[in-house]
């Protein structure tokens, strides 16, 4: 089934070239189908790229999915045209009276700041509190996962000696849990962050279950025991070029940027990186949509 997106959204052309079934909202409204309503809080600076990455994964499902994009009202994005936000995005005030089957809160390149010093932290906490009663399941990515762990469960983050950037091995801890159904016992996933979360603190929580850890013994996939929240501490949604583009961006800025680990063949930035985590990215999003959104959400919200 298709994902329902606006006809003029730039991601549409890319998705159609990849043979992903997309449908504009006007056509979707003529079909007698109850689509899953997913709201995406996009905090990433390159919003159009993140839109494409997430829609690519949400579109690989037999379920029809209708997308609403959110941006912050209390923070002005510097890397996207205001016309793009005005045409394709909402602010929280526009949607706070609605209910959604699922929500995604993305990462953001601000993890070195204390949470309370993020200029939109108060707005985000209001949205996370709202999600408790207005969303069936919430998927949190990277900094979004750290924010959820801190706000909902009181688990903080700590700074790493240097940026964690690369593609790393991960190991499934609880293979019978539906979120990791079909996962290999060992799989790859990319990371791009300056901070981390304590595995000991996560496992000490009565409310959380660790589903996967990285080769550095850090939590990667975390599920709340009420199945309301999914936290991913890395970036399974990244395409094959994203880590390389971030590396080149940082070097152009004169930053001391390390080559992403286990990313380029032979660690040679002149080589084309391979997309070695694609299948598990699709599987994770499909499992989330099926088991934690579709099978849990009411057909009609009260």
From TrEMBL:
Keyword Transferase attached: yes
Write down the top EC class of this protein: transferase
Pathway recorded for this protein:
Amino-acid biosynthesis; L-methionine biosynthesis via de novo pathway; O-acetyl-L-homoserine from L-homoserine: step 1/1
Q: Which residues form the active site?
A: 142, 235, 237
Coiled-coil ranges (or none)? none
What this protein catalyses is: L-homoserine + acetyl-CoA = O-acetyl-L-homoserine + CoA
Cite the entry's keywords alphabetically. Acyltransferase, Amino-acid biosynthesis, Cytoplasm, Methionine biosynthesis, Transferase
Role of this protein: Transfers an acetyl group from acetyl-CoA to L-homoserine, forming acetyl-L-homoserine.
What is this protein's name? Homoserine O-acetyltransferase
Organism expressing this protein natively:
Salinibacillus aidingensis
